Recover the amino acids of this structure.
């Protein structure tokens, strides 16, 4: 189970990149010029890599529930992700950026906590 925690730094980097990307595609400049992020060109390779990483991230969160010393973190990560998804589904682009930022910040904090658990147990 300790090996499972070694993926936390990878997903922490992914979360930070995801926050930067959301600011780029849904940021204040995009909102000010009334841009639609669906119209921006994203390569198929980048889209595939992003979706594959999100899928791996969800699998990792589900697998992390089995680790007794990080179960609460995993359940909270899953709950924050599901709640963020449900809230983003029914909002405008302006609120989507706000929700993504808060959701990402909470997940970054939880991932840092998992990394601290890893550091203490190693």
């Amino acid at each position: 189970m300790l090996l499972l925690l070694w993926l936390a730094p990878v997903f922490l980097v992914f979360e930070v990149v995801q926050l930067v990307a959301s600011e780029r595609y849904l940021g204040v400049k995009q909102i000010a010029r009334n841009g639609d992020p669906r119209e921006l060109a994203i390569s198929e390779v980048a889209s595939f890599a992003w979706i594959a990483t999100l899928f791996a991230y969800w699998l990792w969160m589900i697998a992390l529930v089995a680790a007794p010393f990080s179960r609460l973190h995993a359940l909270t990560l899953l709950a924050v992700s599901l709640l963020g998804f449900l809230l983003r589904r029914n909002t405008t682009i302006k609120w989507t950026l706000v929700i993504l930022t808060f959701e990402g910040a909470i997940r970054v904090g939880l991932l840092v906590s998992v990394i601290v658990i890893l550091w203490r147990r190693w």
User: Anything to note?
Assistant: Residues 93-121 form the longest helix (29 residues). The chain has one domain: 2-121.
